[in-house]
Amino acid sequence: MKTASVRTWSTVFSTLAICCFSIPAMALPLQEGRYRIGSKYIQIAARGNRLCYQGLSARGNTTSSITPHTSPDFYVVNFKTADSKETLVLHQPTIGNLLYGTLHNLASWAADYESSRSQNDAMERCLGSQSPFLEESTSSR
Asked: Is pLDDT above 60 for 24?
């Protein structure tokens, strides 16, 4: 009798462990702000239901609208780089961390609480538009 009881509890515990511990944690909605990796920045801004992305680097800026991805907790950035035909996505696992890249190659960007959160004209145009938005500019260096 004791052996059957132990086996039953062992099975129940194993089932619970598989069920409960294999479920990934839910991500957060995208958090407005700036994120940094090296000398590159991403800014996320929102107005109502409208989300916009801006990538800033020494080579230039890209401003784009953001839409939900078919995968839960992921968002699509409305542009593709010349060297990548894959969709670029955003994912917010924690408040201080943003993941950005392709679904199979995401880089971790840390929140940058030190830099200005002001929005330039391109970001304002993106936030004011209701259509897919994309605007790129190169640096004058």
From this structure: no
